[in-house]
Structure formats: C-alpha cells, structure tokens
Amino acid sequence: MKSQNTFVIKQAFYKSLPVLAGYMILGIGFGILLQNAGYGVFWALMMSSMIYAGSMQYVGVGLIAGGASVVTTILTTIMVNARHLFYSISMVERYKDTGNYKPYLIFSLTDETYSLLCDGQVPDERTGNLYRFLVSFFNQCYWVLGSVIGSLLGSVLPFSTDGIEFSMTALFMASFTEQWILGGNHIPALAGAVCSLLCLFLFGPEQFLIPSMLLITFVLTAVRSRIQSGREETE
Q1: Is 22 exposed, middle or buried (0-12, 13-18, 19+ CB in 10 A)?
Q2: What pLDDT, in 10s, does the model give residues 178-233?
Q3: Helix residue ranges per DSSP H, 82-208
Q4: H or E stretch covering 1
C-alpha cells in the first residue's frame, strides 16, 4: 500500500507540473500587487489558502484597497467566478463518489486543475480519488507559494506593477492554445471563442461574461452528440 501511494503521489506531481510555472509566476504577481497595496505576507497566505481564486484575487486587491462594500464584493465575485458554475457541471459525476475528498476537490477546482482532470484519466482506478486530490493539492501549493514569495519580494524590492494583472489572461490564452493543439475536436474551442466575441460586441466588456457563458452552454448542449461522435472516432 505504501509503495502504491508513493506511485500515486509521483504521478500526481508529474501531472501537475505544467501548472507549476504558471501558478508560481501568477502567484508572485498577485503577492507583489497585494504588498504594494499595503497588505503583507499574512494576507497573501490567507487569501491564497482560503479564497484560492486567481482572477478574483487579482480583482480583490483593488476591492480591498478601494474600500468596496460587501454587496459590491459579492456581486463582483459572482461575475468573475461565474464560469466555474458551467464547466464544473461536467465534473459532477466524476466527483460524486469521492468521499472525504469531495469538499476539497470542489473548493480547489480551478480552470487549470479542471484542464488536467477533465479527461478522467487516472493511473489506477482504485486510487483515482487520491490522485485527483493530490493534483488539486499540488496546484494550490504552487499558488500559495508563489503568492508568499511575491509578497516577500514586493516588500524588499522595488517593482512596477503595470501590466501584472494581464498575467492571468496570458495563462488562459496558454491553456487555450494547449487545448487547441492537443485536442482532436475544435468545436468547443471555436464555440467558446465565437460566443464570447459575439457577446462582447452585444453587451460590452463589463456585462458580456454571464451571457457568453449561457450562450456557450446552449451551443455545446446543442452539438453535444457531434462532439461525442468526434471523440469516439478519434479514439
């Protein structure tokens, strides 16, 4: 059993390595922003441990520094993190029988963790739940460590924070590019891009997120059988 768990730990770590560089850099950027806003390493540690929502943490720096109200913070959080409601639906069956791991798996399902686990592949079905837990845990460790390092660096070294907030967008683009290259079926990617651009044009940059998520969900539901048949042909 011990050797089996060691194997699962190694496999989960290898699986999480693509996220390591991205989360460390993004975490460092967040830590620097937070430190420059006047909030030290304790805040960085607590926010990354308890909130663990990369894009929302970046937005949260401005909310905290600007003294935003509770209502504004809640509405902003819903808007920024609404995408999780849509892609997490596909993980309901996979996480249904995960036992004690379930609360943390739900909490730690970020965009990048989802991209690693959505294919459902695990080294061994008997240790699948442990494997998914460890992949999620390693990813959060990278984010927390990066945030703490960034906060410490921001307190001793002068940094210009201009453009740092774009690093999260850059990671999303990198993930999209990887999925496009590795994925055999480009319908989901094209649907996401076209629907987002259409809603951006119709609703503007401030209100397009929720409509685009709804439209993407509708389109993907409509072409679900075609996507499934394409996957079966690829396999």
Answers
A1: buried
A2: 667 766 667 777 888 888 899 889 988 877 767 877 787 788 777 766 655 554 45
A3: 83-87, 92-95, 102-107, 111-117, 128-156, 166-182, 187-203
A4: none
